[in-house]
Automatic annotation (TrEMBL):
<dbReference type="Pfam" id="PF01368">
    <property type="entry name" value="DHH"/>
</dbReference>
<feature type="domain" description="DHHA1">
    <location>
        <begin position="221"/>
        <end position="306"/>
    </location>
</feature>
<dbReference type="InterPro" id="IPR001667">
    <property type="entry name" value="DDH_dom"/>
</dbReference>
<keyword id="KW-0378">Hydrolase</keyword>
<dbReference type="InterPro" id="IPR003156">
    <property type="entry name" value="DHHA1_dom"/>
</dbReference>
<dbReference type="InterPro" id="IPR051319">
    <property type="entry name" value="Oligoribo/pAp-PDE_c-di-AMP_PDE"/>
</dbReference>
<dbReference type="InterPro" id="IPR038763">
    <property type="entry name" value="DHH_sf"/>
</dbReference>
<dbReference type="GO" id="GO:0008441">
    <property type="term" value="F:3'(2'),5'-bisphosphate nucleotidase activity"/>
</dbReference>
<feature type="domain" description="DDH">
    <location>
        <begin position="15"/>
        <end position="150"/>
    </location>
</feature>
<dbReference type="Pfam" id="PF02272">
    <property type="entry name" value="DHHA1"/>
</dbReference>
<protein>
    <submittedName>
        <fullName>Bifunctional oligoribonuclease/PAP phosphatase NrnA</fullName>
        <ecNumber>3.1.3.7</ecNumber>
    </submittedName>
</protein>
């Protein structure tokens, strides 16, 4: 599989790199990192990274614009995207061939060739392992992107997906001389509106007897703090240290739907996310419900798994 992916990359003259919608640092880091490595290795190829940019992550780079005709003979690589419906750019599957590289559970095998490894912390880490096997050098401009992706998906190396292999990759990337001060400054700077909204979130946590914490942010509340849904979604772990918490959810109301960010300290929650038009990792998932009337249903399901779970 890995050798087949390498051959497809080396044979293609045009490569278009996609990832999931509403990108996080791993989605963008893996995308930009792979683009830089391939551009460095194959300067004669046309290699584009496409999709919508998250405002808070605009410092990571500039995305390309491509036309429909560009896909006709293109190799498309989709990164960090478990389900076809989450791909940012529906033209992704119109290329000559499609490769999927991901670390989420492989529940939707939408690509012609797939490399999925759920044992790694992030797609960025997976790509570094892959590039190392191929002998492709990783310049500093790519290393800082991959490092950002790993930092983002491991919560600064705190989450259980962090392994000794993760630290080995991080050390390799650091050895290229990347500026982590610049990276952390940009990744974790906070707008005043988002900081004030965080205060509201911390004051309005509801905790069930089963250990489910949740906060509901309506459109009206977001407008009050002049905060975007994107800014608010970053607050999902702001109350992760609450005593007695097993799982938690942040509900974000938009004009069309309610986005749900789900997290856990033990109970498996991605199966619940699937019930509500979502998915993800066992301990970190996302879902979508029609409106706020469904909040109670989501909490009820979380109560079931949290109530049956006991820490060792």
């Amino acid at each position: 599989m890995k050798e087949q992916i390498r051959q497809l990359i080396e044979q293609a003259s045009t490569i278009i790199i996609h990832r999931h919608e509403r990108p996080d640092p791993d989605a963008l880091g893996s995308q930009f990192g792979l683009q830089v490595v391939l551009q460095s290795r194959f300067p004669e190829k046309k290699i584009k990274a496409v999709g919508e940019m998250a405002t808070s992550l605009a410092f990571m780079g500039t995305l390309d614009v491509v036309g429909t005709t560009d896909y006709q003979e293109a190799l498309v690589i989709v990164l960090d995207t478990a389900n076809q419906g989450r791909i940012d750019g529906k033209e992704a599957l119109s290329g000559r061939q499609t490769i999927k590289i991901d670390h989420h559970p492989d529940e939707d095998p939408y690509a012609d060739v797939q490399l999925v490894d759920t044992t790694v912390s992030s797609t960025s880490e997976l790509l570094v392992h892959l590039l190392n096997e191929w002998g492709y050098p990783i310049p500093a401009a790519a290393a800082i992107q991959f490092y950002a992706g790993i930092v983002g998906d491991t919560g600064r190396f705190q989450f259980r997906g962090t392994t000794s292999r993760t630290f080995s990759v991080a050390a390799q990337l650091l050895d290229t001389g990347i500026d982590t001060d610049w990276l952390y400054r940009n990744m974790y700077q906070t707008e005043l509106a988002a900081l004030q909204l965080q205060g509201y979130v911390l004051q309005h946590i509801q905790l069930t007897e089963a250990g489910v914490g949740y906060v509901v942010l309506t459109q009206e509340m977001l407008a009050t703090f002049d905060a975007t849904v994107e800014q608010a979604s970053l607050l999902v772990n702001s109350f992760a240290g609450l005593k007695g918490l097993k799982t938690w959810a942040l509900f974000l109301e938009t004009e069309k739907e309610v986005r749900v960010r789900l997290r856990s300290k033990g109970p498996v929650i991605n199966e619940i996310a699937k019930e509500f038009n979502g998915g993800g990792h066992p301990m970190a998932s996302g879902a979508t419900i029609k409106d706020l009337t469904e909040v109670e249903h989501v909490i009820s399901r979380l109560n079931e798994v949290a109530g049956a779970f006991h820490f060792e």
